[in-house]
Amino acid sequence: MAYLDHAATTPMLPEAIAAMTAQLAATGNASSLHAAGRRARRTVEESREALADALGARPSEVVLTSGGTEADNLAVKGLYWARRDADPRRTRVLASPVEHHAVLDAVDWLAEHEGATVDLLPVDAYGRVHPEALREAILRDPDDVAMITVMWANNEIGTIMPVRELAAVAREFDVPMHADAVQAFGQLEVDFARSGLAAMTVSAHKIGGPFGIGALLLGREYTPVPVLHGGGQERHVRSGTLDVPAVASFAVAGRLAAERREEYAHRIGSLRDELAAAVLSAVPDALLGGDPAPGGRLPANAHFTFPGCEGDSLLLLLDAQGIECSTGSACTAGVAQPSHVLLATGTDPDLARGTLRFSLGHTSTEQDVEDVARAIGPAVRRARTAGLS
Ligand SMILES: Cc1ncc(COP(=O)(O)O)c(C=O)c1O
């Protein structure tokens, strides 16, 4: 068994499981005033402090959500509404074209239902947005920009964005910028205070924590209009009873992700390089995706294009050998669609159908690399033959 799909989700860390199970039997709504409620509240506030510490933020800047998707929606829609309500000219959203669908579809929704104009920022061959491109886009009309959203690191090809430089440009024009740091947290140093961002998304299940919990890091300058209305929890921007066991578990995973990051990134980066070398040696015409420059892409990411192959067939052939990875492209009604990320980087749509993403994580070992090295050559040959028949 080689699980190489940690960018989709990671197995939970034993420490995060222990923190969660310890809370499952506890009673008390963190909003209640009695002793059980106060105990739950204490657990939540201690967890918030641990998460703030791990992310270079203040505890009051951690807005807990049901995950990355909700945090992205709150940032994009909420900041758009807040800025447009304050000045009706502000209806333009600047976004990178390689965002996760949680951002891209929220932006598209604003265009369809709220009169937003969406400017997709130009990217280079690795899907990177350059600060000059952002400046140019803002300068087209600095008065009409509602918000900017550019991810910290891409989930398919691992490209790392120059987030601090981009946020500095946004600040020059007093425009709030949000970054989806779901894939960056745990692999890169994501320090919210130093980033200059107005908002930043993280998710627990990508760092060894549980599903269904995440956070929007939110500075004090901008208050998004809520997406969820109700009890007024989380600074009145995200109502809903908190899932205390998940919050406690997220905090443990977050603390460990920050503490172990450097050593982890080093170990996983070497393993990824070995995996890339093994695949390229077994399939010499395979193309390694992402930016090969040091610090150009996430250490856990290995993305390949196999000319003449359907990624889906290849994935299933590897799955039959116990190797679990992803194509990185969406499948609509059984038809494999080339990924929007690859299309944005100028990849030929036919080539973009033959991609595989291996993403390593805390459970990855040398054995996983050996398993891929052994299986990938025969699988590609079979997938190519199947494609020709
Ligand atoms: C970059 C990125 N953003 C957002 C999400 C969504 O996060 P969640 O699964 O917590 O809703 C993911 C997960 O696939 C992701 O990779």
Automatic annotation (TrEMBL):
It catalyses: (sulfur carrier)-H + L-cysteine = (sulfur carrier)-SH + L-alanine. InterPro entries: Aminotrans_V_dom, Cysteine_dSase, PyrdxlP-dep_Trfase, PyrdxlP-dep_Trfase_major, PyrdxlP-dep_Trfase_small. Keywords: Iron, Iron-sulfur, Metal-binding, Pyridoxal phosphate, Transferase. Its EC number is 2.8.1.7. It is an enzyme of class 2 (transferase). SUPFAM superfamilies: PLP-dependent transferases (SSF53383). One of its GO terms (molecular function) is metal ion binding. Residues 3-371 form the Aminotransferase class V domain. The keyword Transferase applies. Its cofactor is pyridoxal 5'-phosphate. Belongs to the class-V pyridoxal-phosphate-dependent aminotransferase family. NifS/IscS subfamily. This is Cysteine desulfurase. It comes from Streptomyces fulvorobeus.
